[in-house]
Amino acid sequence: MSLAGKLSTELPVHATAEKWFHTFTNQLHHIQHVTHKVHGAKLHQGDDWHANDSVKHWTYTLDGKVETCHETIESVDEQKKRIAFKIFGDAIDHKYKVFNLTFEAIEKDDGSAAIKWSVEYEKVSEDVHPPYGYLEYYDHVTKDVDAHLVEAEKNARK
């Protein structure tokens, strides 16, 4: 049995891919205020939330438990509206040697949008389950953030 794998989830969203990408590249620190799954986020190391060398500390609920981890931005592809993150620390390191997260805001041909989350991982042992709980977590975050972005757009039009 392989210790490495990749999981993905893709959800349709109401806000535009551009709005989503802008939020994750310029307002990542606000995510903690718009989803009940994230309890806190703070800059752990560095001066800028969106710099590749910055380390963020996240506190969140996963599978009914409060967990913490650290995150850095590995790369940003503005044309593809894709951000690659490295996730590590408390909740991750005892289960996974590698845990890379990719966020992608996808513009569909019909004018709609979708958010795709992909997790590439390597487990520390065969006893560790694939990170399915994280896909469920990202689905919840996506729904909460989308509702917030749609509401913010409505309020801006008033």
Provide a descriptive summary of the structure in words.
The chain has helices at 17-26, 90-93, 132-157; strands spanning 4-13, 38-45, 55-62, 65-77, 82-88, 96-107, 113-123. It contains 3 helices and 7 strands, in the order βαββββαββα. The protein has one domain: 2-Layer Sandwich (Alpha-D-Glucose-1,6-Bisphosphate, Chain A, domain 4), CATH 3.30.530.20. The protein has a 7-stranded antiparallel sheet with strand order 1-7-6-5-4-3-2. The mean pLDDT is 93. It is of the alpha+beta class and 158 residues long. The chain is globular. Helix content is 25%, strand content 44%.
Keywords:
25% helix; alpha+beta; Alpha-D-Glucose-1,6-Bisphosphate, Chain A, domain 4; 158 residues
Arrangement of strands in the largest sheet: 1-7-6-5-4-3-2
Uncertain residue segments: none
The main sheet comes to: 7 strands, antiparallel
Give me the count of strands: 7
Supply the helix-strand structural class.
Answer: alpha+beta
The CATH architecture assignment turns out to be 2-Layer Sandwich
Report the radius of gyration as a whole number of Å. Answer: 16 Å
Number of helices: 3
Span of the ends, CA to CA: 56 Å
Order of helices and strands: EHEEEEHEEH
Cα shape = globular
Mean pLDDT: 93
Measured as a percent range, the helix fraction is: 25-40%
Share of residues in strands: 35-45%
Whole-number tally of structural domains: 1
**Superfamily at the CATH H level?**
START domain
CATH class: Alpha Beta
